[in-house]
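S.,

Sequence below, as promised.
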Amino acid sequence: MPKVTNILIVGVGGQGTILASRILSGVVQKIGLDVKVSEIHGMAQRGGSVVTQVRYGREVASPIIPLGQADIILAFEKLEALRWLPYLKEDGGIIVNDQRIDPMPVVTGAAAYPEGAISYIQSKFAKAIVIDALDMAIQAGNSKATNVVLLGLLAKHLDIAKEVWLEVLKETVPAKHLETNIKAFEAGYSSIG
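The prediction came back faster than expected:
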């Protein structure tokens, strides 16, 4: 059976995970591969967990990534990275935005935010990359471009030409935000990782 690439995009509502998955699926379609996308919104508008599963290859039967089969997790927030780790293959890669967004149980005092998330992830997975995508997005001109910084870093690790990514970015992002998003993408693409 032909290889299917499984990418799990995780974050919280308002971080742009859905837009990131649309750009990724657009890139994959542009190079002529089959792509299936499954989105799970858990009270996304209130900062709840948002997960998108993107699967692509010559032929993809299901949009759902089986447990332990994600090739890459693209995590927009470190607690979400921890929450979805069981989906990552043993030799999989994980890109983590070193950002903390307290979920409602932490905000209300009903739970504590787990300490040491990044060091735990790095101890379990050799291919763990951690960046401060929020700071890079701010430097590019808009904190909301964090998602595109992360996509830029992801793009560097996928076998798809950078030009295709930029083309889809131009087709997807509103013109008034395009320059900032291209800067954000380039920042992620040229970052260490």
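The domain at 4-190 is CATH 3.40.920.10 (Pyruvate-ferredoxin Oxidoreductase; domain 3).

Coffee later?
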